[in-house]
Write a structure and sequence with these properties.
single chain, 264 residues, alpha/beta, Immunoglobulin-like, 6-stranded mixed β-sheet, 4-stranded mixed β-sheet, binds copper (II) ion, Rhamnogalacturonan lyase domain-containing protein
């Protein structure tokens, strides 16, 4: 008798346990289905018709040509000189997106630009890929794509950026106050990346595919000129702007970054 009561209790408990789990599995499945539907809905958005894809590509190319890669306050200088030159790079296809900048000019105190920079998002691409801005510049981050993006900077960045996931047509803004390099990524699309290089003064230039740079309106004096590339080692050179000459020429060769030695 005792055995049959025991068997009955165990069966009852097992039955209750199964029903309880099934209910929760169903709940979880419904949530999963909801997610799948959500993903499908988002994926559907990314599947563009041929015509839409062509329009998107045209928008991307237009943005690549038109969006500024340098934002600064124009400074008036008497007897301003020009620093010009060419950058060559090893291990990258073109010597483009190299930021050449003068490290210190006077006291490095210049009014922040009123003009905003723009980093747009089109066809899972940040445009421009590299932007150099003077300290205190605000950058607008529109989402002109057909899917949502989530812009953020990695933990090691000198300034934290976390714009969260946001919709097509939304514009977010960030003011960059510290002079340093800020990598930008997207939490949704691993292939997206960009760099903001924030600089202390308005004397900088971003190279195109030809590697040529030109920094105008620099007062005569002795300076340190640096060339930065996201993947290569930064090189710094001395440059003298003499009173009798209008230009100074400096060439750079950027190479692979040295590997960090492991601490023993
Ligand atoms: Cu994205």
């Amino acid at each position: 008798m005792k055995k049959s009561i025991c068997f009955f209790m165990v069966t009852l408990f097992a039955g209750f346990f199964c029903v309880f789990n099934l209910t929760h599995i169903n709940d979880a499945s419904q949530n999963d289905i909801g997610l799948v539907f959500g993903q499908e809905a988002q994926e559907e958005k990314t599947t563009l018709t041929e015509e839409e894809a062509e329009i998107a590509q045209q928008k991307l190319e237009k943005a690549m040509k038109e969006l500024k890669r340098e934002v600064r306050t124009e400074v008036k200088v008497e007897n301003g000189r020009t620093i010009t030159g060419t950058v060559k790079c090893t291990r990258v296809r073109y010597p483009e997106n190299v930021v050449v900048y003068v490290e210190e000019v006077g006291d490095n105190k210049y009014p922040a630009p009123e003009e905003h920079g723009v980093i747009d998002q089109l066809i899972l691409t940040f445009v421009p890929h590299v932007i150099a801005v003077q300290k205190g510049t605000t950058i607008d981050f529109p989402n002109s794509d057909s899917v949502r993006h989530s812009v953020f900077s990695p933990e090691y960045s000198c300034q934290q950026v976390n714009l969260g996931t946001y919709d097509v047509g939304v514009v977010k803004q960030v003011k960059f106050e510290e002079s340093c390099e800020i990598p930008l990524l997207c939490n949704v699309h691993i292939e997206m990346s960009a760099f903001v290089l924030v600089l202390d003064n308005p004397y900088f230039s971003v190279t195109g595919k030809d590697g040529i740079f030109e920094i105008e309106n620099v007062p005569p004096g002795n300076y340190k000129l640096s060339a930065w590339h996201e993947k290569l080692r930064t090189v710094t050179k001395d440059v003298t702007l003499e009173a009798g000459k209008t230009t100074a020429s400096v060439n750079f060769l950027l190479k692979k970054k040295k590997k960090r030695r492991k601490k023993k």
